[in-house]
Amino acid sequence: MVFDASLITAIDPPPEVESALAAINTAHNQVSSDISLAQAAADQKIVQSKRAVEIETLKAQAEMAPIQSLAQELMELHKTAPAALAAYLRNVRMALLDKAQQIYLEVSR
Amino acid sequence: MNLTNVVIAMLAAFLGAFFIEMLLAGLAKFFGLFATVQEGTCRVYILFGKVIGILDEPGLHILPLKIGPSALFVNLLGSCQVLDMRLDQQYLRSEAVNSEEGAPMGIGIWYEMWISDPVSYLFKNTDPRGSLRANVSNSAVRCLSNMPLQEMLSTRHEMSQAVRSEVSAKSQEWGYRIGSVYIRKVHFRDAGMIRQIEEKVVNRLRQVTSAIRQAGANQVSVITSSAEREAAVEFARAAVIRPATLRQMFQQVSAVPEVSEALFQILETQRMLAGAGKLVLLPAGTHGRIMSDLLATAPPPR
Q1: Do B180 and A5 touch (CB under 8 A)?
Q2: Contact A61 B289 (CB under 8 A)
Q3: Of B212, B219, B234, the CB nearest to A27
Q4: Which DSSP state fits B99?
């Protein structure tokens, strides 16, 4: 019986080579870690920006909603009775008299 | 008394028969009536300088039936050689060869052999084991010298086969059969060359380390920049959402100037009412004099 094979018992690199190989492993692990961290930070930033769009959209809608409602009401008022618009406006301004601390009135002589 | 005599007689008969059996067996063996062959061994009988029989099957053998009447006095006038037929191994360390490039290399060779022809082993070579060692060594140097260094370092199987085929024919002449041949170690013999190669390898590995780090930094930069670009686009989109949302509504409102004016007057009034500022109401109109009077009576600025 004849064995056709080669036998490799052990490969022991010299200390400097082993150190350099270990440095490669360390660098590889470090790079993998850095890439993972960068990827995580990038994902977080993108999510943050998408969330900012949603927040701004909601804020704009919140700001617009009362104004739009008021505008629609005024539009209806103007269509149905144009003179009533001025009366409504004057009525709104009446509240200023309650708030005013001083009022100067000009009287005719 | 009679019982004691009987026991003594039986013991004496047993001991006598025992010694007589041993004596007869020794005489039979001495006169070559039988021989015992152990596993993994071979017995070669030589009488008057000539081989008269070989026993290589383990077990009990009746010698006169194997080698004839000369068995009766072969132990007296001849000799019997007992050979170990088991597989044997040898390792040759650091056989010196040179590569094609001139690098002094050392080869470690492991080989196995066993005795295939006992007569040739005993009589054709005074030191068959030493001859086989020298033959393997010479064959290794002859077959493996001037090989390209890369092949020498990477083709051990082919090298082993080359050495084995070279050695086999010669070894059989001396009664040996060569079994497996392994090139176990290929190494540099010049310490300076080893150091230079180590330095080159270390430098190359350091370059690879730097390249890995640089590639990683580049990839991190690409990831960060891409994310910043995408985020900047989204943030810009967020910044224009408010004007874009309000623009449409104000376009509709400003189509009717009276409504637009009233809307903003109402909004202004609401802000004034909600604010914490001090509110003073003055009469409006171009004919009013109060403002000019107030300005005239105001103290001069310091």
Answers
A1: yes
A2: no
A3: B212
A4: B
Structure ipTM: 0.70
List pLDDT tens digits, range B181-195. 998 888 888 888 888
Determine the pLDDT at residue B197. Answer: 85
Question: Concatenated DSSP letters for A14-34?
Answer: -HHHHHHHHHHHHHHHHHHHH
The three-state secondary structure class of A102 is strand
CB contact at 8 A, B142 and B166: yes
Spell out which residues of chain B touch residue A27, defining contact as CB-CB under 8 Å: 209, 212-213, 216
CA distances from A33 to A37, A40, A47, B212 (A): 6, 11, 21, 13
What are the structure tokens assigned to A77, written together? 């008022």
Beta strands in chain B (DSSP E): 34-37, 41-47, 50-55, 59-62, 79-84, 88-98, 104-115, 176-188, 280-281
- B231 at interface of A, judged by CB pairs closer than 8 A: yes
Find all residues with CB under 8 Å of B194, minimum gap 6, and list them.
B188
CB contact under 8 A, A42 and B281: no
Name the band, by pLDDT with cuts 50, 70 and 90, for residue A8: low
Distances (CA, A) of B14 to B4, B9, B19, B28, B63: 15, 9, 9, 21, 29
Q: Give the C-alpha distances (Å, rounded to integers) separating A28 from A19, B9, B208.
A: 14, 93, 10
pLDDT (tens digit per residue) in B204-260: 999 999 999 999 999 999 999 999 999 999 999 999 988 888 888 888 888 888 889
Contact B228, A44 (CB under 8 A): no
How far is A51 from chain B, CA to nearest CA, in Å? 9
- The answer to whether A6 contacts B182, with C-beta atoms less than 8 Å apart, is yes
